[in-house]
Design goal:
Blueprint: H1 3-66, H2 72-95, H3 98-111, H4 113-142, E1 144-145, E2 148-149, H5 152-165, H6 169-180
Helix pairs in contact: 1-2
Amino acid sequence: MSRTEVGSTGQQEGNAGVAEMVSEQATQVKKKGRAELREQLDQRTNDVGRQASSLAGALRRAGSEAGQGASGTGVERVTSGLAERLEQAGSYLEQARGEEMLRDAERFVRTRPWVVAGAAATLGFAVSRILRASSEQRYDRTSTTASGSRDSQDWRAAATSGYEAREPVASRASEATAVAS
């Protein structure tokens, strides 16, 4: 064997060793990241669970105070039921671990896909309505005059009538070519 063959073989082995070392370090970093993510998820869900339990207690107190009035039995019953559900959710969040919650969520989606699709559609519709209402309010605020704000329906009527009165672009272009010739 010549010296160049021995040198290149040694260099290849060195490169392979470096690649293996980098791969091991990447695996260790990935494992450490997953562990930290699980820890953070568990901590956050425990916090949310405690807050839900606290909210349930406050709701129960508010319901009992409202229940002291004349028509309070219905209010107290509703708030008590809602508080009980919040306590159940809070205790689940405090006790369950991240992987457990993911498994439960997957199981729920698999067994009830139409419920999830319906909830997503309802949520999307609600968000679109909220965004539309807020954009109309924002636009109405920016189109105010010195005497006060305009009625949005009057503004819309004026805006659409202005568009209908205009001639199409094609007819204006044909008039321009007729004048030019």
